[in-house]
Amino acid sequence: MKRNRIPELDFLRSSAIFLLLVHHSGVYQFQIGSFPLSSLSKFINHYLLGAFIFISGFLTAITLHRKEITDLPAYYRSRSIRIYIPYLVALLLFTVILDIHVSTREFIIHSFGLQILLAPKYSEPVRTLWFISLLVILLSITPILIVTARKASRLFAAYLVVFIISILIHETFDLLDIRILYFFPTFAIGSLIGISKSLPIMKRSDVLFFGSCVGLYIGIVMLSQNDRTYISNLDLLHILWTTLYILSSITFIFQLSQWFLHFKSVQKLTLFLATGSFFAYLYHRPLWGILNGIFGVSGQKAEVMVNLVSIPVVLILSNVLQHAYERVLVRR
User: Fold this and answer.
1) Alpha carbons 251 and 233: distance in angstroms, whole number
2) Residue 31 forms beta bridges with which residues?
3) Cβ within 8 Å of residue 83, ≥6 positions away
4) Does residue 7 have a cis peptide bond before it, meaning omega lies within 30 degrees of 0?
């Protein structure tokens, strides 16, 4: 693995991006025997998005806290180059290639990454890209809290206040998409682990591993009682069970990854997938749209097969594009 990378986090990221491509391929219309694959949808969704959010929270915290960065404008410029510019390109590709229709006002809202903030009253988030809007909002607010708080206890209190205020805004003004409330706790816990330097405990604690198994079981049982991935009307208990499932699955996979990372081939594959994961997230749908157009594919089942077969192509192209982008802009 490259220096300064955390192999277990790369494993989380690589497993998440692979599952995301399968998740978005349309495979849920099929079933294995009498078992409908659609019943796995919300569990895969929560794990893969939760993993991305957790990693983002953790890396934001260690970047700002351990390196003692105080120049927030420079930090925001760096994040903008890495996230915002590729997002704008993806937004254009979604509107042109995938024929996503949005009004002029909506396009302006989406261009600034505010759709998740202004939904549902003023905006309808675009599929897939709503998650980048969520990251934009979190990465705009939390760095200030991290730099100001400095200690885990103070940061926890700040996050709790922000979460309560978010609930009040959502309920009072019909703003803040409900998915913010679903994923904010995972981001917060990821950053708290970064500040408190608790990641080694996740690697070695047998108690935590056993707890993650119990948490997984409870989370699956409780979430199985409802068919919906998110409940639009505020349901704090459902958010609690979702957060329990996300954190338990992350901890379980994190510890399990150490067994696989003993193999050099797994290390190389993990690094490859993790490195191109952001561009793979942004551009897989437009790339699929282009491929399906080239092959003249029609019909849902045919599209699913093309999507699944082309996953390696999407991953390779995303890796190449992300490396090129970083060489041209990010590392200047």
Assistant:
1) 29
2) 36
3) 132, 135, 136, 139, 278
4) no
